[in-house]
Amino acid sequence: MKYFQNGENFLIVLAKGEELFSLLEEFIVRTQLKTAWLTGLGGATDVELGFYNLEEKKYIFKTFSQTLEVTGLTGNITRDEEGAPLFHIHGSFADSEYHVIGGHINRLVTGGTLELELRPVKDSLTRKLNDEVGLKLLEEK
Fold first, then answer.
1. Among 16, 67, 73, which residue's Cα sits nearest to residue 46?
2. Domain that holds residue 6
3. Count of domains in the chain?
4. How far is Cα 113 from Cα 17, in angstroms, rounded to an integer?
5. Under a CB-based contact definition with an 8 Å cutoff, are residues 63 and 46 in contact?
């Protein structure tokens, strides 16, 4: 992982074989980042995606172990009530036949590269469990 600061924003470049969430955690430790919005693109070789079943209040996960174009990532980094980082990132991915899949990212291993932009948010946000939907939703800290 390499990263650069561009004004208040950060540009992060992941290399082939690097895992997204473990490197984001490392980045947060290095920079003390609290809250940020994230966008990205690149490639992946292994992705676990989730679809949230609202009625059952649980994710249904599926793994895709193939070379994929990351056509778009969007999400955020927040903290839980104890201060641990939480990632909420969705992505769309295209295979060699140009079929697109997408969902909530639970795991992503970088293909050729993965390029991210993080835009820090001045006000810290947190997530708190919402019993009605079964998810930790954004709240102002």
1. 67
2. 2-140
3. 1
4. 9
5. yes
Torsion sign over Cα 28, 31, 35, 39: negative
Tokens 């998810």 correspond to 135
Question: Is residue 26 pLDDT above 90, yes or no?
Answer: yes
pLDDT, one tens digit per residue, over 92-136 is 999 999 999 999 999 999 999 999 999 999 877 888 888 999 998
pLDDT digits 0-9 by tens, 72-86:
999 999 988 888 899
Whether the CB-CB separation of 47 and 68 falls below 8 Å is answered with: yes
Q: What is the 3-state secondary structure (H, E, C) of the chain?
A: CEEEEECCEEEEEEECCCEHHHHHHHHHHHHCCCCEEEEEEEEEEEEEEEEEECCCCEEEEEEECCCEEEEEEEEEEEECCCCCEEEEEEEEEECCCCCEEEEEEEEEEEEEEEEEEEEECCCCEEEEEECCCCEEEEEEC
Nearest Cα residue to 125 out of 77, 82, 89: 77
